[in-house]
Amino acid sequence: MQTSFPTPTQIAPDVWLIDLLEQGQPFRTGAYVICDTYPILIETGAANSHAALLAGLNAIGLRPTDLAYVAVTHVHLDHAGGAGQFMAKAPQAKLLVHPRGARHMADPSRLFQGASDVYGKRILELFGPVQPVASEQIQIQEHESVISIGKRELTFFDTPGHANHHFSIVDPVSDIIVAGDAAGLRFRNEFTGFSFDFIMPSTSPVDFDPDAVSRTMALFRQLPANTILHTHFGATPKAEALDETERLCRAFAAIVNRRYDEDESVAGLAAELSDLMEQRLKELGHREFNLNRIADDFAINAMGLLHYELRRRRKLHAEASGQTSTDGGAGGPSTN
After folding, report:
1. Cα separations (Å) of 219 from 21, 63, 233, 283, 301?
2. Beta bridge partners of residue 155, listed in sequence order
3. Tens digit of each residue's pLDDT (9 = 90 or more) over 11-64
4. Which residues are paired to 210 by β-bridges?
5. Of 2, 24, 6, 74, which is closest to residue 44 (Cα–Cα)?
6. What is the C-alpha separation between 88 and 291, in angstroms, rounded?
7. CA–CA distance from 176 to each of 50, 162, 206, 234 (Å)?
8. pLDDT at residue 260, rounded to an integer
9. What's the pLDDT band for 330 if we cut at 50, 70, 90?
10. Does 200 share its domain with 282?
11. How far is 268 from 99, CA to CA, in rounded Å?
């Protein structure tokens, strides 16, 4: 029985959104294609999304061998877990990756282990196996580096907050910022079953940092593009995405800071995050919704917030005692 795949959506002239059907769910995770003299694919998704990705490219009229570049905004498995599998079909292409993420594409063992620590035995069911990318195909993109793909020049910006190994890509011709998870997630009504879309940040382990989020939002406000493209999922006017992401990141961080000493449970924190989000949606005029539909997202956010608060307190303790503290990395979980 042949699987039916969604038709790609044209976001702007020569810019396409491919629904990757992550975990069989439409409107959850997407990849973007910018068609120019040297076409670029942005995000491969997880290995389990490989068939949907190939079908989407084919619908646009492209094969893996037609691509000049493949970029991953960061190396969490839902964005880059399928990179090794895909790059083997595109030997001519370069994989563009953040400096902190490059080694995890060449050797994904630590990345996979970090995700396994969160998802346990379900890791293969959720995301599939992770294959390495040949080192000669990996190209590091530094902050403010530029590539030309024809009539467009794409600029890469370091955009931490969600992950330390995260970059975003600006295409001024199309007036877009391909922002991965750096400017929140857009929960589509088609995914939630609600009558509206909304923005919520991802604070998943292990690198979430609300101060870095604020710096990234300030950077985005200065950039010459007015539309955010989220990997999860689709397009949002820039002001809306940035304002909601920054507001909620600060509110989420304040909650974990307040309750950390009395209750460090994921379930307890997730419930309070859900309550806060319910309040915010009602402030925006929404009434008919049930946030149990995205309970897993609140649980993952809670894990990341607890990790952030523990790291923050350890850093304060180290500074008070005259020690130094190092943390962060790319070996965290795979989603959002």
Report:
1. 31, 35, 21, 27, 24
2. 146, 170
3. 999 999 999 999 999 999 999 999 999 999 999 999 999 999 999 999 999 999
4. none
5. 74
6. 40
7. 25, 19, 28, 11
8. 82
9. low
10. no
11. 36
Question: How far is 129 from 120, CA to CA, in rounded Å?
Answer: 14
Q: What share of the chain is helix, strand, coil (3-state, %, to 5)?
A: 45, 20, 40
Residue 215: in which H helix or E strand, if any? Answer: helix 210-222
Task: Identify the domain containing residue 287 by its residue range.
Answer: 248-319
Count CB neighbours of 107 within 10 A: 12
Place of tokens 């790319």: 330
pLDDT tens digit sequence for 150-199: 999 999 999 999 999 999 999 999 999 999 999 999 999 999 999 999 99
User: Is there a single domain that holds both residue 33 and residue 129?
Assistant: yes
Residue 242 counted as domain residue = no
Return d(Cα 123, Cα 45) in angstroms, integer: 14
Measured at the alpha carbon of residue 232, what is the angle toward residues 310 and 237, in degrees to the nearest 5? 105
pTM, two decimals, is: 0.93
How many structural domains are present in the chain? 2
Per-residue confidence at 333, pLDDT binned at 50, 70, 90?
A: very low
Q: Are 274 and 221 contained in the same domain? A: no
Neighbouring-strand partners of residue 9:
17
Does residue 50 sit in helix, strand or coil?
helix
Q: Residue 177: beta bridge partners? A: 170, 228
pLDDT in tens, 99-127: 999 999 999 999 999 888 878 888 999 99
For 138, the 3-state DSSP assignment is: strand
Q: What is the mean pLDDT of residues 242-271?
A: 92
The two tokens of residue 274 are: 């859900």
Q: Is there a cis peptide before residue 233, judged by omega within 30 degrees of 0? A: yes
Q: Cα separation of 306 and 303, whole Å?
A: 5
Cis geometry, peptide bond prior to residue 97 (ω within 30 degrees of 0): no
Adjacent-strand bridge partners of 17? 9, 32
Tell me the backbone φ, ψ of residue 239, rounded to 5 degrees: -60, -45
Query: Which residues, in sequence order, are bridge partners of residue 69?
Result: 40, 94
Residue 325: predicted pLDDT: 53
